[in-house]
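ESCALATION

Customer reports they have been waiting on this structure for their group meeting. Please prioritize. Original submission:
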Amino acid sequence: MTEKIGVLGKKSPQRTGVERVVNAPLPTVYGKFQAVGYLDHDRGDEQVALVYGNLGTDDVLIRLHSECLTGDAFGSQHCECGDQLDAALRAVVAEGAGVVVYLRGHEGRGIGLLAKLRAMALQAEGLDTVEANLALGLPVDSRDYGVAARILDDLGVKSVRLMSNNPRKREALVNHGIEVAEQVPLLIPPCENNITYLRTKRERLDHHLPHLDAVVSSS
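Update from on-call: job pushed to the front of the queue and completed.
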């Protein structure tokens, strides 16, 4: 743990790691969740885990959902993020227990909102989502899932059934000590506005999206 100098010249500890700050009931259109709020002292981000039911420790159904303002709040069809969040919340309620960890600081695969909008503008000119990030001199994906693993640790979760099409999420959790018993597909039907984006995720980012085969073969 690092230290900082106080106003009187004394050293005071600077907090590190992830701290649980609050647990509040959150009734939603999906069901009644507990919103468990965390502060990531290392990055300064405020994080939240939406917990439904009694979790237990093993084979817990979870979603690590990267923040996406345009998709989650505005209903953008540029991506499938909003639909995935909706599907994940419905799935944990149907399961009777589960967690959706909403990861702030992950906007645009970690490049931030304004940079993501710049990348979207370049995609409108013909670049794909990978080429757009690189054209801006930005990483293709800079997300880190360490905070998610620490949140799951705090919730007592040891092994998960991970709702994701992204193999890197599975690898990240395993590397941080969380067992992934199963990777559960979270497949959203494509639309005209996001089919190119989804194909790029499959072809260049290794996302498992087998439902695109029918669309590709008929195009």
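Sent to customer with the following note: The first strand starts at residue 3 and ends at 5.
Escalation resolved.
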